[in-house]
Amino acid sequence: MAGAAAAGAKRALLCILARVRVTKPSTLELVSILFHSLNLIIIIMLYLIGLGLGDAKDITVKGLEVIKQCSRVYLEAYTSILTVGKEALEEFYGKELILADRETVEQEADTILKGAHQCDVAFLVVGDPFGATTHSDLVLRAVKLGVPYRVIHNASILNAVGCCGLQLYNFGEVVSVVFWTDTWKPESFYDKIAKNRRNGMHTLCLLDIKVKEQSLENLMK
Ligand SMILES: C[S@@+](CC[C@H](N)C(=O)[O-])C[C@H]1O[C@@H](n2cnc3c(N)ncnc32)[C@H](O)[C@@H]1O
């Protein structure tokens, strides 16, 4: 009897949820939604989705399906350069993308997460969400706010470097080589390359890219 009542309640809740999302939520999501419904807040999900390293078609099938169901889709656009423009991605995904620069992600992360309280929100990252630059800060904030999250991985520069023929097992610490300015000329990457070499390890050197972060203050972050 109690089982039938629980099943009925679950069905009723699913009917309500069908208005706000297409896919069936997991039990974990249902519990989360029930809990937050008491505060008239519906927590759905934050998705961190890797886009791979090529063009729009490098996204995984799973990643594309999730993007299509999300109400808001952010495109992280400061740690990597896309080989295609935002418009090409929008056309292929069939979704409008919100560009998220460093400022948005680091200083307005709560704005991204607030959206996740009413709908599914996707955060797209070129490569893998945790490749080289991690987005663990966003994940930690989500956990703190009780917003469930999922990661959909993809190829990263960290494994694609294997295309040069060197054995991935034999890479040492990855280094970033930043742009020098007249007053700021960091050389610490050299010591790390030298250390890797002494240990018989290869070094993946990530050359800095300039997107919007032209100021010295931003480059040093
Ligand atoms: C933080 S890492 C890449 C992180 C990315 N999420 C991944 O998993 O590959 C960023 C660095 O990768 C390199 N990179 C990224 N996209 C690139 C591109 N299209 N061409 C050349 N280098 C690129 C640059 O050195 C850049 O500074």
Give the helix/strand class: alpha/beta
First CA to last CA: what distance?
A: 59 Å
Tell me the series of helices and strands, N- to C-terminal: HHEHEHEHHEHEHEHEH
Query: Looking at the structure, what is the overall shape?
Result: globular
- How large a portion of the residues is in β-strands, by DSSP E? 5-15%
Average pLDDT, rounded to a whole number, is 81
Helix content: 25-40%
**What Rg, in angstroms, do the CA atoms define?**
21 Å
What binds here, in terms of ligands, is: S-adenosylmethionine
Number of helices: 10
* Oligomerization: single chain
Main sheet record: 5 strands, parallel
The spatial strand order of the largest sheet comes to 3-2-4-1-5
Contiguous runs where pLDDT drops below 50 for at least 5 residues? 4-9
Q: What is the total tally of β strands?
A: 7
Question: What descriptive keywords fit this protein?
Answer:
single chain; 221 residues; alpha/beta; 5-stranded parallel β-sheet; two-stranded parallel sheet; 10 helices; binds S-adenosylmethionine
